[in-house]
Amino acid sequence: MKSFGYLLSTLLLAVILVSCNNKPKIGFLMDTLNIERWEKDKELFEKRVEELGGIPLVRIADGNSPKQLEQTMELIYDHVDVLVVIPVDLHASRDIVREAHKKDIPVISYDRMIRDSDVDYYVSTDNINIGELQAEYLSTMAPNGKFALLGGPTKDNNAALLHLGWMNVLQPLIEKGDIEIVVDESVENWNSEEAYEIIDNYLSNDNPELDAIIAGNDELAGGAIRALQEHNLQREVLVAGQDAEVEAIRNIVAGYQTITIFKPIDAMAYTAVNMAMKLAEEEGPINTNITVNNGHKLVPSVLLSAQVVNRQNIKMTVVSEGYVKEEEIYQ
Ligand code: GAL
Q1: Phi/psi at 176 (nearest 5 deg)?
Q2: Which residues line ligand 1 (CB under 6 A)?
Q3: Which of 100, 191, 199, 294 is deepest in the core (most CB within 10 A)?
Q4: How far apart are the C-alpha atoms of 99 and 92, rounded to whole Å?
Q5: Which fold is adopted by the domain 2-126+264-304?
Q6: pLDDT tops 70 at residue 38
Q7: Which of 181-185, 205-209, 289-293 has the lowest mean pLDDT?
Q8: What pLDDT is stored for residue 18 in this prediction?
Q9: Which of 112, 156, 265 best tests ligand 1's pocket when mutated (most atoms within 8 Å of CB)?
């Protein structure tokens, strides 16, 4: 009897092991968790992989590109089926694709493009459009303004796309002589302290004139707002950010920030995971809605749309979609 029970439990264990072994492993190589939005991407990603019967394997590179390549090798060694990557560095991440492809592992570029590589798919929000939305909003409010541009790091492809979007809107206004760019800087590592210093330096000049600040994300917008506060200029200067961070929404309510951009992170995470699971289970076809040139090829992509969040539509956007809770904003 005892030996029958033993046999049964060994069999059960074997079944469990086999079924675990059959579950697709989806790797998620993330740049950082230092910025609020990425916590949400991570949570949604893991939840969706588990819902679809896969195993999520998440690694955080802490902004370190060689570390991200080491983590790639670890996941390849772990027999991951698909890699979803938020590249730390738009160029160095080519090696991630190269190593994965050696083992026939497909790679999906997530939020940020891996440039000049044979990456298989790209899932993101239309970043040029995000830049246009920010610049349109602020240039409508300050049609004859002096503008400061605080861009993201040069190693992040999105920073370049945002800048392109800003200039699509601002260039004709500059040429007409209506708008002047008084600051145009790249902030390394999306560092809010550096954004603070850039704006503080500018405002420390004799007679600085400033009407609007377009920032690559809410971290940079937050740094800029601190500088404005020190010079007693909060509420005098328009500020645009991106990511719909709780602090940014609070700043909008307080009148210190004009807008932020709300990206559909839930839809992005779901799209990437659905794609990854199909690839892992070889269950095509993979749906895409556009191709994006990454310098090497036209990458089949899904690009989603972002929304502007201003003081008036907070409830209709971030709150109604469950992205931010009202208690968090008005605590
Ligand atoms: C960008 C991303 C932004 C922001 C930033 C900082 O690539 O598009 O939403 O979060 O990284 O990590």
Answers
A1: -70, -15
A2: 35, 37, 111-112, 156, 158, 190, 217, 242-243
A3: 199
A4: 12
A5: Rossmann fold (3.40.50)
A6: yes
A7: 205-209
A8: 53
A9: 156
